[in-house]
């Protein structure tokens, strides 16, 4: 997590409860609007932070009610960096991209779909970065989609 705070860095600490990712989504959307991100990029930001927070709650923290998810957003160089940290052991194996048609047809479960969305929408993605009490996912979304 960034250690030097200023007006371009926002930090949130969420309880490990599904539904609280909406706070991160709303906060990040407001933050992005301050830096004139286009509505479609704001939707991308909301999607990646929601998917990452839910994955952190369900998989990283294993649903433990005593755990939390820490999220930081930072604006720099026409991009927003998002770090989502859990208190888990990191991603053991990054799954291959899911077969979207099979998921939509309900042949396959939507396993790995969140990470797939994150990789499709973010300009940069890093997994398994170690933090004080767990691991984090780092994502960067540029103001203008490349």
Kindly provide the radius of gyration, computed on alpha-carbon positions and rounded to a whole number of angstroms. 15 Å
Helix content: 25-40%
Termini gap: 26 Å
Indicate the CATH topology: Heat Shock Protein 90
What structural class is derived from the secondary structure elements?
alpha+beta
How many separate structural domains?
Answer: 1
CATH class: Alpha Beta
Query: Count of DSSP helices?
Result: 4
Strand residues, percent: 25-35%
The CATH homologous superfamily is named Histidine kinase-like ATPase, C-terminal domain
Question: Ranges with pLDDT <50 over ≥5 residues?
Answer: none
Oligomer: single chain
Question: What best-fitting shape do the alpha-carbon axes yield?
Answer: globular
Q: How is the largest sheet built, in terms of strand order?
A: 1-2-3-5-4
Succession of helices and strands: EHHEEHHEE
Quick check: average pLDDT? 88
Task: Characterize the biggest β-sheet.
Answer: 5 strands, antiparallel
Number-wise, the strands total 5
CATH architectural grouping: 2-Layer Sandwich
Strand-helix topology:
Layout: E1 9-15, H1 21-34, H2 39-60, E2 68-76, E3 79-86, H3 100-104, H4 113-121, E4 124-131, E5 134-142
Antiparallel strand pairs: 1-2, 2-3, 3-5, 4-5
Helix pairs in contact: 1-2, 2-4
Model description:
There is one protein chain. The protein contains four helices and five strands. It has 146 residues and is of the alpha+beta class. The protein has one domain: Heat Shock Protein 90 (2-Layer Sandwich). A five-stranded antiparallel β-sheet has the order 1-2-3-5-4, covered by helices on one side. A hairpin with a 2-residue loop joins strand 4 (124-131) and strand 5 (134-142).
């Amino acid at each position: 997590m960034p250690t030097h705070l200023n007006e371009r860095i926002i930090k949130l600490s969420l309880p490990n409860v599904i539904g609280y990712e909406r706070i991160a989504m709303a906060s990040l959307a407001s933050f992005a609007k301050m830096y004139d991100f286009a509505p479609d990029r704001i939707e991308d930001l909301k999607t990646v932070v929601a998917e990452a927070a839910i994955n952190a709650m369900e998989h990283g923290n294993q649903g433990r009610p005593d755990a939390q998810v820490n999220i930081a957003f930072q604006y720099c160089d026409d991009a927003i960096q998002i770090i989502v940290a859990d208190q888990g052991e990191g991603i053991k194996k990054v799954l291959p991209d899911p077969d979207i048609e099979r998921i939509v047809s309900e042949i396959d479960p939507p396993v790995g779909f969140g990470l797939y969305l994150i990789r499709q929408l973010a300009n940069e993605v890093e997994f398994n970065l170690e933090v004080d009490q767990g691991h984090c996912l780092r994502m960067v979304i540029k103001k203008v989609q490349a």
